[in-house]
Design brief:
50% helix, 4 strands, single chain, mainly alpha
């Protein structure tokens, strides 16, 4: 399973990057017109707690992480005009295909967290760090409206840590016990379906 999964990751990511190259170029021009760099390289925590820099198209104003919370809820004024479209259609995540090629991530696996939230994991939750993080996962499908949930919460960070993060870890640990290439492909198709219907 491990070798087959890596083979799928490499083949699909390399092919996807080539096919999407024209779209990447168009997005890069649009992001640049909003001012600032095209990419946002945030440090996330990967497998075994190893930090790595994730690739994303920048969707927020420069230095947004210094002028507000780590979490982004619907209506956050730091999100740029282009960024709103990218986030809605999940196109800001596409450069993570480079992370998959590099071996930092997989196509399917738990979304990697920033160190601040990993430090809040319980001993049981830290088991998720044994898994290779991914671009999408069952929790991303289940909580596709996460930004709206956070926007409606009285305390967004508390809601995220105590409810959303905890449930996402539970879902991912449960999924890992029965994951196969077939179930990974199903998660990818579900993710594409959600994006297509936005």
């Amino acid at each position: 399973m491990k070798c087959a999964k890596r083979a799928l990751d490499l083949t699909a990511s390399a092919l996807g990057s080539l096919i999407l190259l024209p779209l990447f170029a168009l997005i890069a021009v649009a992001v640049k017109r909003d001012g600032g760099p095209v990419f946002y390289r945030q440090v996330r925590v990967g497998r075994h707690g190893r930090p790595f820099r994730i690739w994303k198209f920048r969707t927020m104003v420069v230095d947004a992480d210094r002028s507000g919370p780590l979490l982004t809820a619907t209506g956050d004024p730091r999100v740029t005009r282009t960024g709103r479209w990218l986030r809605k259609h999940k196109c800001d995540e596409l450069p993570q295909l480079f992370n998959v090629i590099a071996g930092d991530m997989s196509l399917v696996g738990p979304r990697p967290e920033v160190a601040r939230y990993v430090a809040m994991y319980t001993p049981d939750q830290r088991a998720v760090l044994q898994l290779v993080p991914g671009i999408t996962d069952p929790a991303s499908v289940r909580y596709a409206d996460e930004s709206a949930i956070l926007a409606a919460a009285k305390d967004a960070e508390r809601t995220y840590v105590e409810v959303l993060m905890a449930e996402k870890i539970r879902l991912n640990l449960d999924y890992a016990k029965r994951a196969t290439l077939a179930t990974d492909l199903r998660v990818i198709l579900q993710t594409v379906g959600l994006i297509a219907n936005r």
